[in-house]
Structure formats: C-alpha cells, structure tokens
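Course assignment 3, question 2. Fill in each field.
Student: A.L.
Task: Predict the tertiary structure for the chain below.
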Amino acid sequence: MVIVNKTDKPAILTESDQILNDLKTELATLKSRMNVIEEEQEQNRSVMERLSFQEDLANEMIINHQNEILINRENYQIIANSMHDLKSPVSEVVSNLSGIIAEIDDEKTQNTLKECMNTASNVLESFGDVEDFCLIASSGFSAAQRVVNSREFFRDLISGLQSSCGTDQNTFRLLVDKHVPEKVVLHCDTLKSCFKNLIQEIQHSIKSKQTTIFLSSEKKEQKYGIEIEDLSIKIEADNTSSFLWSDSWLDSINNNKVVLLNSGFNLLKTRDLIRKTGGYLKVLNKEDRVSGFEIQIPLSY
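Answer field:
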C-alpha cells in the first residue's frame, strides 16, 4: 500500500498582513511609551508638589525672618529711647556736681565730688554708646557704595588718620599687595567710620606707637560663574595688648571690658557696621595677645 504524506502549504504574507503586523508592533511600542510617560508624569507631579511645599515653606520662613528683623529693630529702638531718657538725669547730676565743686573750698571734699562726677560722666558716656549702638542696630543699612581707586582711597584715609589721630610718636604705615584690584566698590563712609573706630581701639587698649595697615585680596572658588574675591584689611599694632581674645565675642568682651574702649561697645558697633556691608571683623592675636584687627569685605557683590 502506498501512503501519501500531505504537507501544509506555507502561508503567503500579503502586503496588508505585513502592515497589520507593523501596526501591532508600533501600537505595543506606543502603549509601552505611554506607560513610561504616565510614570514620568506621576514622578513630576510628586516633584512639583514637593517643590510647591518647599516654596511655601521658604516664603513662610522669609516672612517670619522679616518679622523677627522688624521686632529686633523695635526692641533696639526701645532700648535706645530708654538710654536717651536715662541720660538726662545723669547729665543733671554731672552739672550739679560741677556747680557744687566750684562753690566748695575744702580740697578733700572737692576731690571726692570730682570722683563722683567722673563716675557719673563715665556712666553718661556709656549710656550714649549704648544708645548709638542700638540706633545703628534698629535702622536699615542703606549706605551707598562707590567705585574708587583702592590705593588712592586708603592713602587719603591713612593721611587723614595721621592728621587727626597720629603724632610724631604715633604713626601709620600703609602696605598694599600688588594683587589688590585698582578699582573697587566700597561702602566708603561706613569703612572710614569703622577704620577710625579700630584705630582708636588700638590706641586705647594696645597703645601702639606704629600701626601698619596691610591690604591684600583673596580669590576663592567660582559660584554661579562669578569669581568670588574678598578684600582683606589688616590693622596691626607694633606691639601686643595685655589681654586675650577667644572665639566667643560675648566672653571676650565680658572679660576685657575694663580695658576696651567704652566697655567694648566701640568694637560691637564696628563689627555690626562691617557685617551690614557683607563682611566681617576678626580680632588678630600674636603670642596669645591681641595685636590688631582684620576686616574682610566682599568685592564680588
């Protein structure tokens, strides 16, 4: 017997079949892509919600910070007003003591009253310093900046200090590093005031015969495409003081207020002014004793 094996005929793919297969593949790809897009949208939605929360939180923190600044200014203004009111009776005491001393012939009594008058005068001066400090702290900082020639500005500043604060036995020397930019933007009036305060502090508490002012610049890493550069102003005496300075300004002023000018309010006022310019004030030490000060001022913004 002869058995005939039948075989299936191969399927013939027509052009329409190929198109259908391609469309099915493309549809599957689109579905997969849509799932990915939906996942990305969900992730983006979550990110946007977090960003929105962070933005709301940041805005709330800014508002709270602004309120704190306002409250602190009001507090300082209240203290300044209180100091101003306290100055009047103390001033009357000084005036009355002066009149009494002029009418008394007894020298011993006069000396005693003079000591009382000096004490009252020191209290009056301290009240004035507190009032000035609080008025500065309570006001917004709006000092204008100017573009100046760095070397000319500091030469004129030193020359003025020599005329007002210097003598033949008390001189000033200016040194300028070659890398200091010729043109700089400074809060000129504020810097002059701070400079004078620090010179007076050195003359009072360090008793320097020669004070050296050294200018230098320090470039730091770039931020947002801007090269950060600071101006360093070192004001250093030719000798050292008799007191120490720690990292804590509070402890240092409390420990040294007897030797500091105006019980330390001169330094506090100066530090506050420099901070308002974006800079900071550093106390320099040599052989564990205060030898001067350094002002760091940003030049890049």
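Instructor remarks: The radius of gyration is 37 Å. Residues 15-103 form the longest helix (89 residues).
Grade: pending
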